[in-house]
Protein backbone atom coordinates (compact mmCIF):
# COMPACT_ATOMS: atom_id res chain seq x y z
CA UNK A 1 0.00 0.00 0.00
CA UNK A 2 2.90 2.36 0.81
CA UNK A 3 4.44 2.03 -2.66
CA UNK A 4 1.10 2.72 -4.39
CA UNK A 5 0.55 5.79 -2.19
CA UNK A 6 4.06 7.07 -3.05
CA UNK A 7 3.48 6.50 -6.76
CA UNK A 8 0.13 8.31 -6.60
CA UNK A 9 1.73 11.22 -4.72
CA UNK A 10 4.57 11.43 -7.26
CA UNK A 11 2.18 11.42 -10.25
CA UNK A 12 0.00 14.07 -8.59
CA UNK A 13 3.01 16.32 -7.97
CA UNK A 14 4.29 15.87 -11.54
CA UNK A 15 0.85 16.71 -12.89
CA UNK A 16 0.72 19.89 -10.80
CA UNK A 17 4.21 20.94 -11.83
CA UNK A 18 3.54 20.38 -15.53
CA UNK A 19 0.23 22.26 -15.40
CA UNK A 20 1.87 25.25 -13.68
CA UNK A 21 4.85 25.31 -16.07
CA UNK A 22 2.73 24.53 -19.16
CA UNK A 23 5.02 21.58 -19.88
CA UNK A 24 3.79 18.25 -21.09
CA UNK A 25 4.24 15.10 -19.07
CA UNK A 26 5.07 11.98 -21.09
CA UNK A 27 3.92 13.55 -24.37
CA UNK A 28 5.10 16.18 -26.83
CA UNK A 29 4.05 19.81 -26.66
CA UNK A 30 2.72 20.98 -30.01
CA UNK A 31 2.51 24.55 -31.31
CA UNK A 32 0.15 25.03 -34.25
CA UNK A 33 -0.01 28.13 -36.43
CA UNK A 34 -2.57 29.08 -39.07
CA UNK A 35 -1.11 31.79 -41.31
CA UNK A 36 -3.24 33.66 -43.83
CA UNK A 37 -1.75 34.48 -47.22
CA UNK A 38 -5.09 35.84 -48.46
CA UNK A 39 -5.48 39.59 -48.95
CA UNK A 40 -8.91 39.59 -47.27
CA UNK A 41 -9.65 38.58 -43.70
CA UNK A 42 -10.52 34.94 -43.18
CA UNK A 43 -12.48 33.49 -40.27
CA UNK A 44 -11.34 30.28 -38.61
CA UNK A 45 -13.19 28.21 -36.02
CA UNK A 46 -10.82 25.78 -34.31
CA UNK A 47 -11.90 22.93 -32.07
CA UNK A 48 -10.95 19.54 -30.71
CA UNK A 49 -12.88 16.88 -28.87
CA UNK A 50 -11.87 18.56 -25.61
CA UNK A 51 -11.48 22.26 -26.47
CA UNK A 52 -13.42 24.76 -28.56
CA UNK A 53 -11.01 27.60 -29.33
CA UNK A 54 -13.77 29.65 -30.96
CA UNK A 55 -13.89 31.93 -34.01
CA UNK A 56 -10.84 33.96 -34.98
CA UNK A 57 -10.46 36.57 -37.70
CA UNK A 58 -7.06 36.25 -39.34
CA UNK A 59 -5.88 39.21 -41.44
CA UNK A 60 -3.55 39.09 -44.45
CA UNK A 61 -0.13 37.81 -43.29
CA UNK A 62 -1.55 37.41 -39.78
CA UNK A 63 -1.80 34.19 -37.84
CA UNK A 64 -3.67 32.40 -35.10
CA UNK A 65 -1.70 29.99 -32.95
CA UNK A 66 -2.16 27.73 -29.95
CA UNK A 67 -0.28 25.08 -28.00
CA UNK A 68 -1.37 21.77 -26.54
CA UNK A 69 -0.03 18.56 -25.10
CA UNK A 70 -0.49 15.48 -27.23
CA UNK A 71 -2.67 12.76 -25.73
CA UNK A 72 -0.85 9.76 -24.33
CA UNK A 73 -2.79 7.48 -26.68
CA UNK A 74 -1.74 9.63 -29.67
CA UNK A 75 -5.33 10.37 -30.70
CA UNK A 76 -5.21 14.17 -30.50
CA UNK A 77 -7.44 15.83 -33.10
CA UNK A 78 -7.88 19.51 -33.91
CA UNK A 79 -10.27 20.49 -36.65
CA UNK A 80 -10.71 23.82 -38.45
CA UNK A 81 -13.66 25.43 -40.22
CA UNK A 82 -12.66 28.29 -42.52
CA UNK A 83 -14.61 31.05 -44.28
CA UNK A 84 -13.26 33.41 -46.93
CA UNK A 85 -16.01 35.54 -48.45
CA UNK A 86 -18.45 33.03 -49.99
CA UNK A 87 -15.96 30.14 -49.77
CA UNK A 88 -15.86 27.59 -46.97
CA UNK A 89 -13.90 24.49 -46.12
CA UNK A 90 -13.19 22.26 -43.15
CA UNK A 91 -10.22 20.02 -42.49
CA UNK A 92 -8.20 18.31 -39.80
CA UNK A 93 -5.39 20.57 -38.61
CA UNK A 94 -3.80 17.94 -36.39
CA UNK A 95 -4.27 14.19 -36.21
CA UNK A 96 -2.14 11.04 -36.57
CA UNK A 97 -1.74 11.58 -40.31
CA UNK A 98 -0.53 15.17 -39.88
CA UNK A 99 1.86 14.32 -37.07
CA UNK A 100 4.34 13.03 -39.69
CA UNK A 101 4.67 16.15 -41.90
CA UNK A 102 5.05 18.29 -38.78
CA UNK A 103 7.29 16.16 -36.54
CA UNK A 104 10.88 17.31 -36.07
CA UNK A 105 11.59 16.07 -32.52
CA UNK A 106 12.54 19.53 -31.26
CA UNK A 107 13.30 19.82 -27.58
CA UNK A 108 11.35 23.09 -27.41
CA UNK A 109 8.23 21.36 -28.73
CA UNK A 110 6.85 20.40 -32.09
CA UNK A 111 5.67 23.04 -34.57
CA UNK A 112 3.07 22.66 -37.28
CA UNK A 113 2.38 25.51 -39.70
CA UNK A 114 -0.68 25.87 -41.90
CA UNK A 115 -0.57 28.32 -44.79
CA UNK A 116 -3.95 29.42 -46.13
CA UNK A 117 -3.76 30.65 -49.73
CA UNK A 118 -6.34 31.40 -52.44
CA UNK A 119 -5.50 27.99 -53.95
CA UNK A 120 -6.01 26.06 -50.72
CA UNK A 121 -4.37 24.81 -47.54
CA UNK A 122 -0.73 23.78 -47.10
CA UNK A 123 1.08 22.25 -44.11
CA UNK A 124 4.74 22.27 -43.06
CA UNK A 125 7.03 21.72 -40.09
CA UNK A 126 8.83 24.93 -41.12
CA UNK A 127 7.64 28.52 -41.29
CA UNK A 128 9.31 29.36 -44.60
CA UNK A 129 8.29 31.34 -47.66
CA UNK A 130 5.86 29.64 -49.97
CA UNK A 131 8.31 29.57 -52.90
CA UNK A 132 10.27 26.62 -51.50
CA UNK A 133 9.50 22.91 -51.26
CA UNK A 134 8.68 22.81 -47.55
CA UNK A 135 4.89 23.05 -47.97
CA UNK A 136 2.59 20.09 -48.66
CA UNK A 137 -0.76 20.79 -50.30
CA UNK A 138 -3.68 19.33 -48.34
CA UNK A 139 -7.00 20.75 -49.56
CA UNK A 140 -8.70 23.22 -51.91
CA UNK A 141 -11.37 25.67 -50.83
CA UNK A 142 -14.88 24.25 -51.30
CA UNK A 143 -16.99 26.23 -53.78
UniProtKB/TrEMBL annotation:
Residues annotated as signal peptide: 1-23
Family stated for the protein in its record: Belongs to the plant self-incompatibility (S1) protein family.
Gene Ontology cellular-component annotations: extracellular region
Organism: Helianthus annuus
Lineage: Eukaryota, Viridiplantae, Streptophyta, Embryophyta, Tracheophyta
Name by which UniProt lists this protein: S-protein homolog
Localization, UniProt: Secreted
Listed GO biological process terms: rejection of self pollen
UniProt superkingdom: Eukaryota
PANTHER family, sorted: PTHR31232, S-PROTEIN HOMOLOG
Keywords: Secreted, Self-incompatibility, Signal
Amino acid sequence: MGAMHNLFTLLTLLSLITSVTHACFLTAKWNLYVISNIEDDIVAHIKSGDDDLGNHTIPFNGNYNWSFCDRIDGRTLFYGYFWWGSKFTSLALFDNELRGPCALNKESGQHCYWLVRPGGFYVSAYNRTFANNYWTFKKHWDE
